[in-house]
Amino acid sequence: MKNKISIILVFIITLLVLVGGLFIMQQRLDTQSVRLLNEKLNSKETIFRSNSEKKELNKKFLTKNELVEVVHSMENKKNMRPHEPVKGQLSMNQAITKGKEWVQKLFSTKIQTYKKVSANLCTNDSAGINKIPGILYGFWEVKFEKKNLMVKMSIHSVTGQLLGIEVYSYNKQLKSSYKNPEKILAGYVRSLNMKSNTCIYTEGGLYEKIADGDLYAVLEIGSVQISTKSRKYDFDGVMALHLVPEI
């Protein structure tokens, strides 16, 4: 009798060990399957994010509607707020590099050193004209300073396009560039990947109408004296180049 009970107990214990072993093995297999599935999903998500960011970073120009929306938004200074760059936007160093490139491009001169350099990333609320991604409302405010020169500019945070620039200078190199302001203005419109169809001369500067758009590119250069034969520009060391909505 005792032998039968021992055999039954050994059988039950063996069965329990086998069932327990199978259960533990199944749990391990399930855990491994979940881990492999998560790794696969994460890999796909990473690839998707990478492709999405690459597409956004490769955006070189704002469309006409995007540019109009951004300019209208930037006019509301009360709602302007700083923030850190997000994926798809230029870093501070990239924005500063872009700023130096714009100075060289506009004035055909390279300024090697600056006494002070600053850059702040800001954004404004949507103007509600067109629906564009929120990331496109950001812009870098970049400032360069040295003796007898201060340059302030707004650079789009994704495309790196110049949205506006102010120059305060008695630097002869920069002032020599003002001799052909029409060329500066036309080059600026082209840098936006736009065309212009009208150029208006006023006492305060030049207004260039962007073709098929609701914007003017404006170059303010002191004053302009207009006669029937020619135009004479009065430079006072101050220049502003920016975009304004059509009135």
Protein model, in words:
With 247 residues, the protein is of the alpha+beta class. The protein is built from five helices and eleven strands. The strands form two sheets. A nine-stranded antiparallel beta sheet has the order 1-2-3-4-5-11-8-7-6. It has a two-stranded antiparallel ribbon with strand order 9-10. Strand 4 and strand 5 form a beta hairpin. The longest helix is centred in the first third of the chain and has 56 residues. The N and C termini lie far apart (108 Å). About 6% of the residues have low confidence.
Write the layout of secondary structure elements.
Blueprint: H1 2-57, H2 64-74, E1 81-82, H3 92-107, E2 116-123, E3 139-146, E4 149-156, E5 162-169, H4 172-177, H5 181-191, E6 196-202, E7 205-210, E8 215-220, E9 223-226, E10 231-234, E11 238-245
Antiparallel strand pairs: 1-2, 2-3, 3-4, 4-5, 5-11, 6-7, 7-8, 8-11, 9-10
